[in-house]
Every structure is written in C-alpha cells, then in structure tokens.
Amino acid sequence: MSSSTAPSAPTARIGRPLAAWAAWDWGSAAFNHIVTTFVFTVYLTGTVAADEASGSAALATAISVSGVLVALVAPVYGQRSDAAGAETGRQRRLGWLTAVIIACTALMALVAPEPSYLWWGLLLLGVGTFAYELAQVEYNAMIYRLAPPGRTGRVSGIGWAAGYVGGIVLLLICFVLFLADSPVIPFEGEGTAVRVVVLVAAVWFALSTIPVLRMSFPFPPPPGDTEAAVGWAASYKLLFRRLARLYRDDRHLLGFLVSSAIYRDGLTAVFTFGGVLAAGTFGLTPGEVIIFAIVANVVSALGAVIGGLLDDRVGPKIVIVVCLAALVVTAAGMLFASGATAFWIGGTFLSLFVGPAQACSRSYLARIVPPGREGELFGLYATTGRAVSFLAPAMFALFIALFGAQRWGILGIGLVLLLGLATLIPVRAVAGSAAAGQAAVRT
Q1: Backbone torsions φ then ψ of 250, nearest 5 degrees
Q2: What is the CA radius of gyration of the chain?
C-alpha cells in the first residue's frame, strides 16, 4: 500500500467496523465486571461457600487452574489460529468462544446459595475464564485488519474505553434495578438478585457480540502462517523453536512480553485491591466504594482514549513509560496519605493512568508483530500475563504481613509497577513515527 493512498480511502472506511469491533469490548464488561470482579465471585465466596475463608481459597484455586491452562494452550492456540487462514475467519472462532462464555454466565443462574453448589459455580467460572482468554487472542489480533498506518493506538484506546464504559453502564443498571438496598425490582430469597443479574449479563454480552460477527473488515488479512499448519503436538515443538529464535533474533520483542506481563499484573492489582484499600485503609463506606468504582472506570476510559491519541503521535512506549512512572509516584504518595479525600485524589490519578497503559500495551504489540503471526504473539501475550499473575497479589500480601497494616500493600503493588517500568526502559521502541514503525514491520 503506497503512502499516498494509505490515509484516505482506508481511513474513511474504519468508523463502522471499529464501532462493531469495540462493541465486543463493551459487551465483555458483562463477564469482567459482573462475573469475575464485583458480583458473582463475591456471591460465591460470601453466600454460596460455607465460610468466606474457604470460599476465597477455592476461588483462588479455580482461577489458578484456569490460568495454568491458558498459559499452556493460548500460544499454541494462537499459532494454529494464524495457520487457519482467512477462509476460516477469526470472527467465527471469536463467536464460538464467546458463545461458551455466554453459556457459562447464563448457567451461573443455577448456582443456589448452598455450599454444595460452590464447585459448580467455580467450574463455570473457570471454563468461562479460559474461553475468555482465548477469545481475547482472536479479538486482539483483529487490530491488524482495523487500523490503518498511524491509527493503531487510537483503535486500541477506543476498544479499551468501550470496555470501561460498558462496565459502568451495566453496573449502574444492575445496581439500580436489582442490587441496591431499595432496588427498583426487588426479589425474595437470598442470592436471587445475583442469579437474575448474571442472566442479564449473558444477554448483554450476546447482543453486544452480534456487530463484530457481522462486520466487514476494511483491510484484507495478512497471509496465513503456513509453517504452523501442523498437529497439536508438533505445534508445541514449533512454539519452542520460535521462542528460541525470538530470544536469539528479537530480544526486544521478548523483553516487551516479559516487561508487559509484570506491569500489567500491577495494573490489574490497582483495580483488584482498590476497593479493599478504599474501605479498609481510607475509610470509605460500601456505597462510596461503588461510586468511586464508577468514577474510576469513567476516568480510565477517558485516559484510554487520550492515551491512544498520544500513542499515534509519540509512540506507545513513551506513553506507557510516563503512565507507569506516574502510577509509581502516586502510589508512593498514597502510602503515607490518609482519609477519604486523599483516596479520591490519589485513586483518580491512578485510574487516569491505568487505561492508557493497558491500551498502549496492546497497540505496542500490534505494531511489532510480524504479519501472519498475530494470533501466536497475542497468545504469548496472554500466556506471559498469566505466568506472573500471582506477583502483585503475593507482593500485596507479603508487605501487609511484614509491616502488619493493610496500607503497606500499596508498597507491594508500587514495587511491581516499578519493576515493570525498569524492565521496559531497555526495550527498544518502534523506530520513527507510529505510521513509519508499523510500515517498517509490514515490509
């Protein structure tokens, strides 16, 4: 594609496909926010399980098993997805995986508030999480067919922002209608409202998936990875050969995968433990925590869009480095702060920089992946993230144990972010402008 034609016709055609693609991110918030973060897992550990301690331990075990399976399967799955070629279509595979997630979410409505249902709920959560991570491999790899040169950051940022906003809207709807102290639609019986909410989440995700399955891409697919057209056993052998080749020939790409795995775990921990810290260390009430969660998602969505625009102007690495540095400084300040006002200020700043760092990480990888190997490298992206997903929670718990107060968990998260920043700095940035860098990769 010549430089003279790249900005015009393709750019004019990306609006509708981009909206359809981002709709999947909007809908996936049903699984992220309702199932894995704010509603269903809380119901499992606090209501279904015999006690919260054993329920939390069982939940951690289920998530760990699912994570190990993702780490083992995702890179080879992505590799074989690349080999399947354009005639099979990422949309079809994304559709089947999303159907599994939706089915698991809907079946969670059958989980009654009795201990005997705990493992049934955990099984559905584990299978849904596994399918979700593989679906992310297909979804992320679609960026190549949506973003013209110089627009990768903007496309990724819009997708992340859609996910945040979708989560906010769905949480507000479910909270007001079913989960508030005085809901619009009250239900009798313990846990009934939660079981209705997961059905709403399943329908929400299903409707939001339709646009991406029906859309036409503005750009043709890259050539299929014919080398990966082998059986599953041979796929693992090929994977190890390619990892060795990556270590030998492109350590910067390998370095980015390792670094991003570390700091992405820290970014996840900011939201995972934010509510816990808000209530336990800074004194926010449960209602105030929910309000803050909504505000935090709005700010993160705004940050993701702004970060995507900056990504296309200055490159993704600069945006990520600035965001990580800001997160480390803010976390250090919050370590010695107290009171609700301090949390609102510090927490809002943290939220502002989390979104751009996440969006630009996906964009960075999309820029440097060799054409035809998008699925494989995004599979490795998922795998490396899962491989160190224990790090931030372990550091959070370790520093609480060492110093005897919950606030010291902030130091653990901050150190993980600092380690991710330190390992990212030596990674060579994409040469030149965003458009030139992407073009260089494609040639």
Answers
A1: -145, 70
A2: 21
Handedness of CA 321, 325, 328, 330 (dihedral sign): negative
To the nearest 10 degrees (0 to 180), the angle between helices 52-84 and 232-249 is 90
In DSSP notation, 268-310 reads HHHHHTHHHHHHHTT---HHHHHHHHHHHHHHHHHHHHHHHHH
Q: What type of residue sits at position 297?
A: N
Taking a C-beta distance cutoff of 8 angstroms, is the pair 133, 74 a contact? yes
Between 80 and 120, the higher pLDDT residue: 120
- 3-state secondary structure string across 300-338: HHHHHHHHHHHHHHHCHHHHHHHHHHHHHHHHHHHHCCC
pLDDT value at residue 221: 67
Global pTM exceeds 0.90: no
pLDDT confidence bin for 387, thresholds 50/70/90? low
DSSP line for 44-107: IIIIISSSHHHHHHHHHHHHHHHHHHHHHHHHHHHHHHHHH-TTT-HHHHHHHHHHHHHHHHHH
- Amino acid letter, 239: L
The dihedral over CA atoms of 369, 371, 374, 380, expressed in degrees to the nearest 10, equals -40
**Identity of the residue numbered 94:** L
> Are residues 32 and 167 in contact, defined by beta-carbon separation less than 8 angstroms?
yes
Q: How many angstroms separate the CA atoms of 357 and 362, rounded?
A: 9
Digit-coded pLDDT (tens) for 126-167: 999 899 988 988 888 888 778 776 677 778 888 878 888 898
Residue scoring higher pLDDT (240 or 52): 240
The pLDDT of residue 431: 42
Distances in whole angstroms, Cα of residue 232 to Cα of each of 89, 130, 132, 224, 229: 19, 18, 21, 17, 9
Sign of CA dihedral 430, 433, 439, 443: negative
Residue type at 219? Answer: F
In this predicted structure, the answer to whether residue 79 has a pLDDT above a threshold of 50 is yes
Helix (H) or strand (E) run with residue 374 in it: helix 374-387
CA distances from 430 to 178, 181, 382, 433 (A): 48, 51, 21, 8
Q: Give the total residue count for the chain.
A: 443
pLDDT at 6: 39
**What percent of the residues of the chain are helix, what percent strand, and what percent coil, each to the nearest 5?**
80, 0, 20
Distance CA 164, CA 300 (A): 7
Work out the pLDDT band at 103, boundaries 50, 70, 90.
very high
Which whole-number Å values give the CA distances from 435 to 13, 19, 96, 232, 311, in the listed order? 18, 22, 33, 36, 11
Write out pLDDT tens, residues 407-423. Answer: 888 998 899 999 999 99
